[in-house]
Known about the structure:
Layout: E1 39-42, E2 52-55, E3 60-61
Antiparallel strand pairs: 1-2, 2-3
Amino acid sequence: MTLRSPVELMLAQAAEAVPGPAALRAGVAYEQKPDGHRALLFTAAVPGGTVLVQTGRGALVQEWPAQGGVRNRAVAPPVMFR
């Protein structure tokens, strides 16, 4: 599947309760995300191709901070930024 930016991100929603561990056949796990940034990473279709980062507001980030780990190198999925 090929996705092209901008892609609308799924935003968090308030809920009265979360599903229990048996809600899905493979189980479920949760982690609070009290701060940080929401972003999408578009990996290159070919080795050595361009990697793009889209912010939660839909903007493409050309110069991601060095701690993001994306600058000038290949990134293979899955990738998680903290």
